[in-house]
Amino acid sequence: MNDCVFCKIINHEIPSHVVYEDDDVLAFLDITQVTPGHTLVIPKKHVTDIFEYDETLAQTIFSRIPKIARGIEKSNPAIQGMNIINNNREMAYQSVFHSHFHLIPRYGKKDDFTMHFGNNMKKYPPEKLAEIAATIQHELED
C-alpha cells in the first residue's frame, strides 16, 4: 500500500524505534507511548484487519507476541501487567488500517490508560446466550 504509514515504516521510508524484526513481523515503539514501552506488533504483509488473516498469518503474528511481551516486561522491573489490544475497523477505534496489536505495559492504577467493559448480564439470560452462540457456531461450520 503506497499510502499506508506502517508499510512505509516496514520499508524504512519513515523512521521508527524497532524492538523486534524478522522476515514476517515488525515490532516498534508506538509514538504515542501511552505508557513507557508501548509497542506495536504488525505483520509485514499488508492486511487491513483481523478479518483478512488466514491461519498461517495468524500463527505467524500470534506466535511472536508472547516473546515480544516478555522482552518488554523484562526491560523494566516496574511493569506490573500488560494489555494486548487489537482494534478492527473504525467502529472499534482502528485508526491505522494496517493490522496491528498494541502491547501496553502497565505500571499501576494511575497509568494514563483505561478500559471499560459494560456489564449487561441482565439483558442476556441463558436462553439468549444460547441463541447467540448457536448463530456463531453455525457460521463457523465448514
Give structural notes.
The chain has 142 residues and is α+β, with helices and mostly antiparallel strands. The protein has one domain (5-116): HIT-like (HIT family, subunit A). It is built from three helices and five strands, in the order αβββαββα. A five-stranded antiparallel β-sheet has the order 1-2-3-5-4, covered by helices on one side. β1 (18-21) and β2 (25-29) form a beta hairpin. The longest helix is centred in the middle third of the chain and has 21 residues, at 55-75. It is globular. The model has no long low-confidence stretch (mean pLDDT 96). GO terms for molecular function: hydrolase activity. One of its GO terms (biological process) is nucleotide metabolic process. Keywords: Hydrolase. The active site is at 100 (tele-amp-histidine intermediate).
Query: Which strands sit side by side, in order, in the main sheet?
Result: 1-2-3-5-4
Kindly state the percentage of residues in helix.
Answer: 25-40%
Q: Any idea what the CATH superfamily is called?
A: HIT-like
Number of domains: 1
Provide a count of the helices: 3
Q: Hey, roughly how much beta strand do the residues contain?
A: 15-25%
Which CATH architecture?
Answer: 2-Layer Sandwich
The average pLDDT is: 96
The succession of helices and strands, N to C, reads HEEEHEEH
Instruction: Pick out the low-confidence regions.
Output: none
Q: Specify Rg, calculated over alpha carbons.
A: 18 Å
| Main CATH class | Alpha Beta
Keywords: Hydrolase
Motif (Histidine triad motif): 98-102
Active site: 100 (tele-amp-histidine intermediate)
Domain HIT: 5-115
